[in-house]
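Problem: given the chain below (150 residues), write out its structure.
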Amino acid sequence: MTETTAGAASTACAGPEAAKAAPDGPARTVRQLVGYSLIGGSGVALDMVAFLLLHNVWAMDEQIANVLSTSLGIANNFVLNALFTFERRDRIVVRLLRFYAVGLTGIALTYLLFLAFTDALGIDANLVKAGSLPLVLALQFVLNRKWSFA
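Solution.
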């Protein structure tokens, strides 16, 4: 048995947890990014609908509406990413706290963008919120992959 074959056989015999502990390859990273993005899309939809309702229908301040709507998206995304993207069901409370902490980075980044673009330049808060989403997605994918679900 070659060293490569022996390594593959020992990983296969050890079960799925050993496979998760194996070094990440580019294909796995891409699969996780695609899954994370699709799940993130559901969180974004929930976040945006909640934000639009809170800010536009109920006239809530954009900063407060952002915290509430983003929190809904974070909760949605944590459950789905834990189950499907990163396939982690251990240390759930620790992972949730880390995931939410990463989510707070998105709230902080969006807060700064609101200050710069809505408050200082007068750009519509809805546009700023929508424009912040790709930046927040990229930042949070890296942080969640390397910390929350490591």
